[in-house]
Every structure is written in structure tokens, then in C-alpha cells.
Amino acid sequence: MFKPGISVTVPFNFHDVVKAPVSPDSAPWRAFPTYNFVGGHNDADSVDVRALTQACSEVLRREGRDLATYSLQSGPQGYIGLREFLVGKLKYYADIDCNTDDLLLTSGSLQAIDLINEALLQTGDTVVVEESNYGGVLSRLNQLGCKIVTVPVDEQGMKTDLLALTLESLSARGIKPAYIYSIPTIHNPTGSIMSLARRQHLLDLAVQYEVPVFEDECYADLVWNAERPPALYALDKSARVVHIGSFSKTIAPALRVGYVAANWSLMGYLLSLKTDAGSGALEQMLLAEYCTRHFHDHVKKLNSNLQNKLQALTNAIDREFGTSAEYINPPGGIFLWVKLPRPVDTAKLATAAAAEGVAINPGQEWSLQSDARRHLRLCFANPSIETIDEGITKLAQICFREFGVPRLGQNRSRQA
After folding, report:
1. Which domains does the chain have, with CATH numbers?
2. How far is residue 279's CA from residue 77's CA, in Å, rounded to a whole number?
3. pTM
4. pLDDT band per the 50, 70, 90 thresholds, residue 355
5. Sign of the CA dihedral with 237 first, then 242, 246, and 249 last
């Protein structure tokens, strides 16, 4: 019994009132796993801390007083200095001709995705996407109650001959997709680059069936040989492509700065939906100051480091998994998309591996193809080369213990 006069506080149980259609399965974050192959983290050694510190100091000395106002005297589309840099950067890397009024700075590319979805989607809409795809897009479409129609991907990107059949079938049933979503340059998770012929075919189909195109190019600057086709936005003659990108994969994901390129008929609507009083101003100022001076050299160095890490990853996979692992060596990016033999379920493998400090993304989170359970996505950007090597060795040991795959590796004797 409680004693009279003593107040007892009973913790409130939010389980009774939470309306979100998700299960409360998140746990407090403790630390990154020892062998971390998940997420979109980047190469820590490529973060140019000294130059970033100098850029931050210089831009604050020059324009710091503008922090007293929302939007830094630049208006709701974001810091004008960064938008001016993007105009040149998009022309140089993607052949995009645009001006600062065509650009909106966002809190990472995820906010850009959310704004475009809010503008273009309603519950029950049909959306066409690549069969293997960014998990954040697939989960959002599911949460919005959209119907997802998939098109397979190969080393040349979305198979537009199958896209043509898909759009024809939908049209015959009176269905017009809300948009076609594609990651044409350094696709996530496969790393493919859509060929120029397929890009033009996709745009021709979009015109024929009167469908908007949502182009996600967050990884497009991470191409080893710096050669890539023009962006869909650059090739588009009908003003139906909306383009998004990010500084997360080239400078630093923690800065949370992305952008949208769109014609004004859509841009004006996106601005009416972006009611957050502006994305992080200091990050935008810092990026403008740093990127104007260092972006090209930085990306060249970053790509060299990433290519070395990919080589270390494929060397370790070849040694530990042999022919049990199938993959296409990507021409850039930070991910390797790996297929394992039929006994393996990568969701179960991920659970077993996580218990021993190895984090991987199972294929079901990144693909709607029938054999997604046999795939896994490995991010090689953040771990050191030594950690990559040790982590893949450990992953192979766990996979062998759980599924008997692979049968041969440096830490296992040959099996019958």
C-alpha cells in the first residue's frame, strides 16, 4: 500500500495512444558494430577536416550576421551561394542546364523524396520502380499505400524494353502511373549505370504514356573513370523529369544537405509544401565555401579511395566465398550487390552476423525480385581495408556455420 502523503509517479505508457502503423521494435543506439557494412556511410579518411574548418571560419566571418534571418537573405529555396555552385556542378558532371531558380535545397535527399511524394502521390496510386531499389523509397511507397510495379535491372540499368511492356499493360487496364522512379547513374544497390540509349528510350516512353519521371542521382558523382551519360533531366525535352541529388555521398552524410532540380510548375508547389522554415543554414554556407574551391579535387581523391576499398572487398569475397558469391563489379559508388546460393537466407544471415558484430543489409530490404532473400548489400565505404578483410572472413565463417556455404575458404577445409 502507498503511504498517505507520498506522491508516486507512474510512467505513462505511450503504447496505448501511438497511432503510427509501425511496431515499437527500435532499441536505443549504443555503437556501430565492429564490422559495419550497412547504411550509406562514407570514407572517414576522405573527409577534409582542415579545409572544412577553414571554409566554415571564412564564411562565418564574412556572412555570419545573416544567420540572424531565416533563409540567410537567400529566400526559401536555400543559400544562394550553394545554389550557384550547383548550377556549375550539375552542368559539369551531368550536362544539366539550369539556374538557381530551378534548385531547392533540402535536408538531405530523403526530404526531397518526401516533398515530391507529397506533391505527386495519393493513396492507391501506381508507381513504376526498378526491381531492386533504394529501401527508403520502397518503404515510403508502402507507407503511402501505393501500388509498386517493378522493372528488372541489369548492368545497363533499367531494362526499358520491359518498361515498355509494363506501361503498355498498365495502359490497357486504364492505369497511368504517378511517376517512374529511377536511379540511372550508380544505381542503388546494383551500382549499374543506365546506358544513353536506354535513357532516351525511357524518356520517349514517358512522353508516349504521359508519365512524370523521378530521377535520383545521389551517387552519380562516384564514378571511377568520371565518364557517365547525361542525366535524364538534361536529356528531357518535355519538362517532365524531376531530379534530386545529395552531398551525403561526396562530402559527408551527417551534413544532411540535398537538392531538387525541377521546372517552376513543380518547384512552386514543392515550396508550398516545405514548411520547415528552411534547411540547415550553416551546413549550406559551409558546403558552398568548401565545394567552390575543393569539390573536383576532393571527389577525385574520394573515388580513388573508394575504388581501393571495393577492390579489397571483392578480393576478400573471392577468397572466402569463391564461386558461391555472384556479383557484378560496379563502375562506382559505395555498395556491392551480392548473390549467394539457394540455401542462404540473408535475413537470417544478417541476424546471426549481427550477434557477432558483423552488420549487413539483407536483400529483401532492397529488392522486390523473387530471389531477393539470397542477396545482400555491402557498403564498403566506411570500414578500413583491414576491417573489410576481417569482416568478410568472419561473415563467411558465420554463413558456413548457419547454411554450409561457402564450402571452401581460407578458414575452412574442403568439404565433400
Report:
1. 32-47+297-403 (3.90.1150.10), 49-294 (3.40.640.10)
2. 9
3. 0.92
4. very high
5. negative
